[in-house]
Write a structure and sequence with these properties.
The complex is a heterodimer of chains A (about 200) and B (about 260). Chain A is mostly helical. Chain A has eight helices and no strands. Chain A is globular. Chain B has about 260 residues and is α+β, with helices and mostly antiparallel strands. Chain B has a domain of about 160 residues: Oxidoreductase, molybdopterin-binding domain (Sulfite Oxidase, Chain A, domain 2), CATH 3.90.420.10. In chain B, strands 2, 3, 6, 7 and 8 form a five-stranded antiparallel sheet that branches. In chain B, strands 1-9-4-5 form a four-stranded mixed sheet. The radius of gyration of chain B is 19 Å and the shape is globular. Classes of the chains: A mainly alpha (about 200), B alpha+beta (about 260).
């Protein structure tokens, strides 16, 4: 009797990039919260226990170290996906009507999510959102990091203070994605297995 | 939480006292190692992962190394010709925030007649300058945005002597790497020569058309709209040109040295 092994869904390079991105995002998220707490522009603070760095200086060290991992890994990921055609194959097209139908099905708990080899419309939308959101985070982050040097980008984003708000909103979007992503992983543990073992 | 006393309220009196006490404790034992140990405390992350990295000397070294690389990256990104944006008079932040590593009550003042700017290091003419001699030099003004490392920003109107003119006048060796500053409130910092020569770097004598008031660094501060606030020394009493890395008050505790904007 022969045992057929299931096909590889996530190649090794993709799994490495996924976990590198996850690590970078978590470091940036938690250190960023502490940086925000140094001078909150909205009437709330992030609970200190959730933050990384111990103090502002430590948080900044983490933030400006992890940014290289996120940006380097992200550029590599997008380049490989664009040029290999994987982006088109796995994430596109997104059809608005099908997306809507699948959203409704998902809310009724009737969306088929069991085949990790094929992304449904809701997943496609979610992952494309994550990609765009990270790009916005990086671009607004560049303005916060070097608002004089990236003057064109600064003006495009409506100035330094506006870029701070954009950075925060994009962070919130990324954090929301992370929460849904983790929830879905809990509901469908098979997806976690494939992101660890490839199949 | 920043060690800085935040300038625009938001802290209860008790918090402020606690912060002050903390600042004083830090002043008494400003060990770099101790500060950076805080930097590698993973806080909430250790809750998530169930492991503690509080004694991660290797993480600390790695972060310091990356910060030095970030200095280089910023030096490379820095365009000596690119100007920081300037603003209209109506856009000035009033009141402009006070910020230092101590509270407003602890601001030190000096009588102008007792003050001199001392020069040393790789400078041809190291005679000291009085405030009136500096005021007699050609002056210029700028309305620019001050960006604090904490994230907040404020627009102010600064006047004084273009720093590159002053460096030229005193015969500073502009091929040297650093210009360092010592302040009479025990603050100190240093900057790269490229930023020192930037056209908007200003040896600042006035704020909003008046002699620099005590809270903004009377009698002299260095204003650089291309650098974060902590790189802009107030209460300057001495400056020097050198090739030996001089560090800085916050920089020695872990803030990035270049601190560019």
């Amino acid at each position: 009797m022969t045992v057929t092994r299931p096909p590889i869904i996530h190649p090794l390079w993709l799994r490495l990039m996924h976990w590198a991105n996850a690590l970078a995002f978590l470091l940036l998220l938690t250190s960023g919260w502490r940086i925000y707490n140094a001078s909150p522009f909205w009437p709330f603070r992030i609970p200190g226990d959730l933050t990384l760095g111990g103090w502002l200086g430590g948080a900044l060290l983490w933030h400006f170290a992890a940014m290289w991992l996120l940006v380097g890994n992200g550029i590599l990921y997008l380049t490989v996906n664009l040029f290999s055609g994987r982006l088109m194959r796995r994430f596109l097209p997104v059809r608005p009507l099908t997306l809507l139908a699948e959203c409704l099905a998902a809310l009724r708990g009737k969306l088929n999510h069991q085949d990790p080899a094929h992304y449904n419309q809701v997943q496609r939308m979610a992952y494309l959102f994550a990609m765009v959101d990270l790009v916005v985070l990086v671009l607004s982050g560049l303005v916060l990091w070097k608002s004089v040097q990236f003057s064109g980008l600064r003006e495009l984003l409506g100035g330094y203070e506006n870029a701070r708000r954009i950075h925060f909103v994009a962070m919130t979007g990324g954090f929301a994605f992370l929460l849904v992503h983790l929830l879905m992983t809990l509901l469908f543990p098979v997806t976690l297995r494939s992101m660890l073992r490839g199949r | 939480m920043s060690r800085l006393i935040r300038p625009h309220g938001g802290l209860s009196l008790r918090d402020q006292v606690a912060l002050l006490r903390e600042s004083r404790a830090l002043l008494e034992q400003p060990s770099r190692r101790q500060f950076l140990r805080g930097a590698v405390t993973l806080g909430g992350l250790s809750l998530l992962t169930g492991c503690s990295v509080t004694d991660g000397a290797s993480a600390e070294q790695l972060l310091e190394k990356v910060s030095r690389l970030n200095d280089q990256a910023q030096g490379w990104l820095f365009d000596p010709e690119r100007l920081a944006p300037t603003y209209a008079e109506a856009e000035i932040t009033r009141p402009f925030p006070f910020n230092a590593f101590y509270d407003r009550d602890s601001i030190q003042t000096v009588a102008e007649d007792d003050w001199e700017l001392e020069l040393s290091g790789m400078i041809r003419n190291t005679r000291a300058w009085s405030i009136n001699e500096l005021r007699a030099l050609p002056q210029q003004e700028q309305i620019t945005r001050h960006i604090c490392v904490e994230g907040w920003s404020a627009i102010g109107r600064w006047g004084g002597v273009r720093f590159s003119d002053f460096l030229q006048r005193i015969g500073a060796d502009t091929t040297a790497k650093y210009v360092g500053f010592k302040c009479f409130d025990d603050y100190y910092t240093s900057i790269d020569m490229a930023t020192a020569l930037h056209p908007q770097t200003l040896l600042t004598l006035t704020y909003d058309g008046q002699p620099l008031p005590p809270e903004y660094g009377h009698p002299v501060k260095l204003r650089m709209p291309t650098k974060l606030g902590y790189k802009n020394p107030k209460y300057i009493e001495a400056m020097f040109v050198t090739n030996a890395y001089p560090g800085g008050y916050w920089e020695d505790m872990g803030y990035n040295w270049f601190g560019g904007s």
